[in-house]
Please model this.
Amino acid sequence: MIKKIDWLLNRLLFSMHNLDYCFTLVVYTIGIWLVVYPLYCLPCWKRRLKEREGISTFKEYTERITNHIRIIPQYGGAMILLALPMYLVVGVWAICYGPSALEIIRRHLVIVTACGIIPSWILCDLIYWKKNRYLRYFAIFEKESVKKKAAWIFVTILVFVLLIVANFFLIWYNGFLY
Model:
């Protein structure tokens, strides 16, 4: 059972990493054509790149810029994915205990926030980062078809959206009750 949970969480991390890669690639492409290309058209910029970096073509320049896109997986998304269910528990607790629980949350917002972030950070350390465990799973998931990767990206987006909607619903319901 623990291996299946570990596999699922690493699968979600890989999907978040692919989603982050696709988004970053789009942003980089837009940035290259809006900022980098106009700069490269300037003769003084071309001279400077050739003298300092040894870059003589626009293709070399863009390759040097985009080489750093797919190196490190996204850690913030993994922590948020693990923190959102913990905030659901806090929301249910606030509904069960009423106005006194809401008053505790309002007074100690930093502690409540830490109650979601610190455990998710510890879990991420145990599941992903310790001895770079995610690399073993990434090697397996990288061999899958593009169709399967796209389906998992869709599932990951759906999980994020559902958790965020559920958290906002609990906040709205708490405000509606009290």
User: Anything to note?
Assistant: The two ends are 40 Å apart (CA to CA).
